[in-house]
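pasting for ref
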Amino acid sequence: MDQAALTRIAEALERMAPAPMPGPDFADAEGFVWHVDPDRLEPVARINRVRLDLLVGIDRSRDTLLDNTRRFARGFSANNALLWGARGMGKSSLVKAIHAEVAVNHTDLKLIELQREDLPSVGRLLNHLRGAPQRFLLFCDDLSFSHDDQHYKSLKAVLDGGIEGRPDNVLFYATSNRRHLMPRDMIENERSSGINPSEAVEEKVSLSDRFGLWLGFHPCSQDEYLSMIDRYCAAYGVAAEPETLRAEAIEWQATRGARSGRVAWQFFTDLAGRQGVRV
């Protein structure tokens, strides 16, 4: 076989299985996104988030998670956290806002986003982070599992298990609409059809037990919904007649059939756009 043919074969193999990219320079950014095929950490130039003081109605969860994150950033022990509950109530916004708040005084605290479908690669990600001088918040948004999903097994070792265990410089924060990360009917099916129902259920719900912090987020009241909008208006300098603002905000949430922080922000975005204010 001639040299040209060998070169073509080598190039084809390289395309099929490219060499892993070199590790990132963590000083380049405050946030990164983990990708696979090939494994790499891509820096995020600007993290999409809101200020911590704009998050209304979640004071207890905010204070608890903020204290936990500050202790971790200082090098002390801290717990993995599961933020669960009503959709649109600021779970992921809180994680990103708290990272920004703490990183002001601890610039070596980095936020890394991990997609749920990439959980099987989490061991390889930890190898990139283990031993680095920085500290990392590993963040997985909208974490949940279906009845035939085995990804949760990859996560167990990260949270509380495995021979190596979780690196001391890594903390895991996840958000979910489900307290036990799995649908209720899935758990009930295990109870009714499993050979040993209690063991089958325990295996699945034990994943959420491995989070040291459970922070619940519940639907907001109308007063809290209106307070969120008032806070946004004050922060961005959007002026509106109070009675008109209240009536329009209530009409907006009625058309959506729900009240939440997300709905409040969507209404405010529409209001600011109508007034020509950039947000």
